[in-house]
Design a protein that fits this description.
Toprim domain-containing protein; TOPRIM_DnaG/twinkle; 224 residues; four-stranded antiparallel beta sheet; 2 domains; Dna Topoisomerase Vi A Subunit, Chain: A, domain 2; alpha/beta; 29% helix
């Protein structure tokens, strides 16, 4: 069974109340900085690249901060993305207009690994987190991962995700340490939909991305 068929991920409804913003232009000059930033956080540049992440410095005319553009999804094909600063900046993320709380990031395990082994993620739980870096950490370990745009999200987004994944897929929810209410809310919504779902919290770092590889593996273990 192909991964896309197994998880049946669809896009989440977007907000059309404001004009959409196009994707920022790529600036390959910042590829080394993007790689260094991700490697410095023990995150996979290769997995990020496979999921179409890229560097830019053209998100805002008056803010040429180099950022990683992270594609997001919505049901109407509305352009939506987040831009994560790769240098120290008071505003870590800049996002496109509209649709933030309904949008999601979907991360897939490495394409080449899937091509070599069709059932690469077979038996592994789907991972639901509150940030794209956490989703990247999970995808690099062979999981399909979905993140919301932070701890504030639309219940519709979680309900829609729940309705569009196969019932034989278990879900692991990993909230940030400082926002356990995100995890309990998501688990409640998933349980109400009849999903097999557990919540796990890192004992090492603030979130999955900050955890060691050993801790990540422990958090991402199968749901019994």
């Amino acid at each position: 069974m192909q991964l896309a068929e197994r998880y049946k991920i669809n896009e989440v409804q977007g907000d059309l109340s404001v004009p959409p913003e196009p994707y920022p232009e790529e600036n390959r000059r910042y590829l080394p900085a993007m790689k260094a930033y991700l490697h410095g956080r023990r995150l996979s540049y290769s997995t990020a690249k496979d999921n179409c992440w890229y560097p830019t410095d053209s998100i805002k005319e008056k803010d040429p901060t180099p950022r990683i553009v992270i594609p997001c999804f919505n049901s109407v094909g509305r352009p939506y993305w987040q831009g994560r600063a790769i240098i120290k900046h008071e505003l870590r993320y800049r996002s496109a207009q509209g649709g933030r709380f309904q949008s999601i990031v979907v991360m897939w395990p490495r394409i080449l690994e899937i091509a070599k082994k069709e059932h690469h993620s077979e038996g592994k739980p789907l991972v639901l987190v509150e940030g794209p870096m956490d989703a990247l950490a999970a995808a690099a370990m062979g999981h399909v991962a979905i993140s919301t745009m932070g701890a504030l999200f639309s219940e519709y987004a979680i309900q829609y995700i729940s309705q569009n994944i196969s019932f034989d897929v278990s879900v692991v929810v990993i909230p940030d340490v400082d926002a356990p209410e995100f995890g309990t809310s998501v688990v409640r919504l998933m349980a109400n939909a009849g999903r097999k779902c557990v919540m796990r919290v890192s004992e090492e770092g603030d979130d999955l991305a900050a955890a060691s590889n050993k801790e990540r593996k422990h958090l991402l273990r199968s749901v019994k």
